[in-house]
Amino acid sequence: MGRPARMQLGALTIAAARPRILARFYSALLGWPYVREEPPKPGDPPDGGYALVCSPEGVNEPALNFEYDPHYRRPAWPSVEDGQVASQHLDVGVDDLDSAVAWAVECGATLADFQPSQTHRVLLDPDGHPFCLCL
């Protein structure tokens, strides 16, 4: 059997302790619409729930889903033995690293202490996920 004609990445789902807060962060950072949210399920904390951020009309990039994970632990960056590992991260293309870092920090990100390259900057979002701003 061959690959179906249409196989298109539609969304990336990110586990979080505070998904709706995290979705608002990425909405502001990227300038993308905050599309919808769902409240926490019974028994979940007030910051639980689900939220969706989609690329703007005319931009064909995957949506970002944020869902509550009751066992979420902030990853260590860079990774450390026996620590929680960031199994993936987002790379965001930018034209100017300094202004992009300033904007990300204004939105609520933290610049990581360890910076492995001159062509990108590693930051941590409000739930501790690393992401990169890349030239």
From TrEMBL:
Organism superkingdom: Bacteria
GO MF, one annotated term: dioxygenase activity
Gene3D superfamilies in alphabetical order: 2,3-Dihydroxybiphenyl 1,2-Dioxygenase, domain 1
InterPro entries noted in UniProt: Glyas_Bleomycin-R_OHBP_Dase (IPR029068), Glyoxalase_6 (IPR041581)
Residue intervals of the Glyoxalase-like domain: 12-134
Pfam families recorded: Glyoxalase_6 (PF18029)
SUPFAM superfamilies: Glyoxalase/Bleomycin resistance protein/Dihydroxybiphenyl dioxygenase
Keywords: Dioxygenase, Oxidoreductase
UniProt feature coiled coil, ranges: none
Protein name: Catechol 2,3-dioxygenase
Organism encoding this protein: Actinopolymorpha cephalotaxi
